[in-house]
Amino acid sequence: MENQKQLRKGIGLFIATALVAGNMMGSGIFMLPATLAQEAGPGSTMIAWLLTGIGSIFLALSFANLGSRYPQSGGPYEFSKRGFGDFIGFINAWLYWNGSWIGNVAVILAIASYAGNLIPTISSKHLIGFLVTSAILWIFTIINILGVRLAGKIQTAITAFEIILFLIFVVVAAMHFHAGNLTPLFPAHKGAGAVSVAASSTLWAFIGLESATVAGGEIRNPQKNIRRSTILGISIATLLYMAINFFAMGAMNQKALAGSPAPISDILAQFFGTGIGRLITIAAVISILGTTVGWLLSTARVAYAAGVDGVFPKSFAKVHAKYQTPYMALIIGSVLANILLLMNYTKSFNSAFNFVVLLATLSYLPVYAMTAASEIRLMKKMYGKVTVLKFIKVSFIPLLGFIYAGWAIYGSGAKTVMYGFLLLLAGIPFYLYMNYKREAVPEEKPASSITADI
């Protein structure tokens, strides 16, 4: 294994689109219809999806524009470093990397939770649960080490399976749709005031919109494919999200939907019998496995880019001599994820999942806000001379994305914001130490070039 600085360009448009859509469509969609029915009425739920979808599309467009202009691995780290300097770049890398490996734990816990319905020992015996989740983590870490193309193909196949599953659900639910289940649209205590609460629940479903930019250094024809895959991926996921929730609310009354532990399988069970529940559980496990592949891939790329620049330890920049993947960044992230799994293995999967999601969500939002701001900051470099009219035109979308990210942070609640702020503060001593090391040992700035298409 050599400490190379080059990654293999093994991702085309199709796989890049699957990476975006697959990373977004993870565990949340299987439970969100019930969660939202508990928090809001049908009207507030659809408004929340619409607001979250529009805000996320604004953010995705900023990622797409920047990713097409700066197609290096690292995505939000690379953009903020160019726009605001090394410190803000480090903060973005720190928050995104920590949010990603913490989020990987949430995804793996969700797999174990669903699998526990099939094999009760996984849920009832904490040690067995820990061993199963650890095995899942390392199997898919090894798959990612073996090559980005292999990992991409596996996620593409699973994402296609997931989309087919959701389309079947939408068709069946639409055939049994009853408008009466949507009334009242704004019930007491779940009216328009519940929109912000519902929007905070839908937010987790949109994490992953930046995935193509994070793997930008491994995408073929990145100037076109990063933008295309980002827009296609978020469009597919958003349309499916809204269709699944709308038809779920029409196929089951609100009270039953709010009390359902597995809304998609319970709705299908109304029409095909209880045996369908087991099949849907298996399908859910397969679907979330695809998310695991994609998120492990994304987690390593930001850490790799920061390692190349020396703001993370150089070990993160090591690339496997044979497979041309950032194997050390993958291994370090998975070791930390395994430690977090160990720390939570005595809890139920549900309580551990909720805690981990709380930590992960607030890690991403400041990164999204700073990426939108970076597009405005880099306007002159990206588009040349800037007039007043051009400034207004170019900054309109990223400014709306920035405002949305700020609103989402505010709506996440004081406790979540506190955890995010503490995580940010924890990175500052790490940055000071790495900065001291770079100044103490002058070295040639690493090249950011990448290999040609293979």
Instruction: Give the full name of the CATH homologous superfamily.
Output: Amino acid/polyamine transporter I
Low-confidence stretches: 444-454
The arrangement of helices and strands along the chain is HHHHHHHHHHHHHHHHHHH
CATH topology category name: Amino acid/polyamine transporter I
The tally of beta strands, per DSSP, is 0
Helix content: over 70%
Q: Whole-Å distance between the termini? A: 20 Å
- Radius of gyration equals 21 Å
Shape: globular
Structural notes for this entry:
By secondary structure, the protein is an all-alpha fold. It has a single domain, classed as Amino acid/polyamine transporter I (Up-down Bundle), CATH 1.20.1740. The protein contains 19 helices and no strands. It has helices spanning 13-24, 28-39, 42-69, 76-84, 86-118, 121-124, 126-145, 148-175, 195-203, 211-214, 222-251, 254-258, 263-272, 275-309, 327-343, 349-377, 379-383, 388-411, 414-440. The protein is globular.
Give me the secondary-structure topology.
Layout: H1 13-24, H2 28-39, H3 42-69, H4 76-84, H5 86-118, H6 121-124, H7 126-145, H8 148-175, H9 195-203, H10 211-214, H11 222-251, H12 254-258, H13 263-272, H14 275-309, H15 327-343, H16 349-377, H17 379-383, H18 388-411, H19 414-440
Helix pairs in contact: 1-8, 1-11, 1-14, 2-9, 2-11, 3-9, 3-11, 3-16, 3-18, 4-5, 4-16, 5-7, 5-14, 5-15, 5-16, 5-19, 7-14, 7-15, 8-11, 8-14, 13-14, 14-15, 16-18, 16-19
